[in-house]
């Protein structure tokens, strides 16, 4: 009976280790996806700035392109929010301002640091 107990203990340890490795892998994947979306957002903001500068300097009509990029930035912010909330634990759900990176409580309308509007998930965006 002693050997069976040892075997059971080893099996339990293996199962726990596999489960924890899967959890850590999922967490790392989500962290990678968050970083990837932040890079996309930074590039999109840079493009918005480029087209805005061109409009101001040369009078080019870039309003449609700027509006398109703002829509893309909003979509990226919603993805980031969903990813950040999926990593939150318990009741302490926080998000980061897409403009200044300050931490804010989920559900806040504006960033306390810079005043920018914070993204809010629509019902269909919740994963």
Protein architecture, described:
It is a single chain. By secondary structure, this protein is mainly alpha-helical. The protein has one domain (2-125). It is built from 2 helices and 2 strands; from the N terminus they run H-H-E-E. It has helices at residues 2-58, 63-87; strands at 94-96, 103-105. A two-stranded antiparallel sheet has the order 1-2. A hairpin with a 6-residue loop joins strand 1 and strand 2 (103-105). Helix 1 runs antiparallel to helix 2. The longest helix has 57 residues, at 2-58. It starts with a helix and ends in a 22-residue tail after the last strand. 11% of the residues are buried. The mean pLDDT is 86.
Q: How are the SSEs ordered, and which strands pair?
A:
Blueprint: H1 2-58, H2 63-87, E1 94-96, E2 103-105
Antiparallel strand pairs: 1-2
Helix pairs in contact: 1-2
Amount of beta strand = under 5%
- H and E string: HHEE
> What's the N-to-C terminus distance?
47 Å
Number of strands: 2
Helix content: 55-70%
Q: What is the multimeric organization of the chains shown? A: single chain
**Could you say how many structural domains there are in total?**
1
**How many helices in DSSP terms?**
2
* Unreliable parts: none
Overall spatial form: elongated
Largest sheet composition: 2 strands, antiparallel
State Rg.
Answer: 22 Å
Mean pLDDT: 86
Q: Taking strands numbered 1, 2, ... along the chain, how are they ordered across the largest sheet? A: 1-2
Helix/sheet category = mainly alpha
Main attributes of the structure:
127 residues; mainly alpha; two-stranded antiparallel ribbon; 2 helices; 2 strands; elongated
């Amino acid at each position: 009976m002693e050997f069976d107990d040892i075997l059971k203990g080893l099996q339990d340890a293996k199962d726990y280790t596999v489960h924890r490795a899967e959890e850590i892998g999922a967490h790392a994947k989500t962290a990678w996806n968050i970083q990837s979306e932040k890079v996309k957002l930074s590039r999109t903001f840079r493009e918005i700035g480029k087209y805005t500068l061109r409009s101001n300097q040369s009078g080019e009509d870039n309003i449609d392109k700027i509006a398109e990029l703002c829509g893309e930035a909003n979509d990226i912010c919603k993805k980031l929010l969903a990813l950040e909330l999926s990593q939150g634990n318990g009741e302490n759900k926080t998000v980061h301002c897409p403009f200044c990176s300050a931490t804010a409580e989920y559900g806040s309308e504006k960033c306390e640091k810079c005043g920018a509007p914070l993204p809010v998930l629509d019902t269909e965006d919740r994963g």
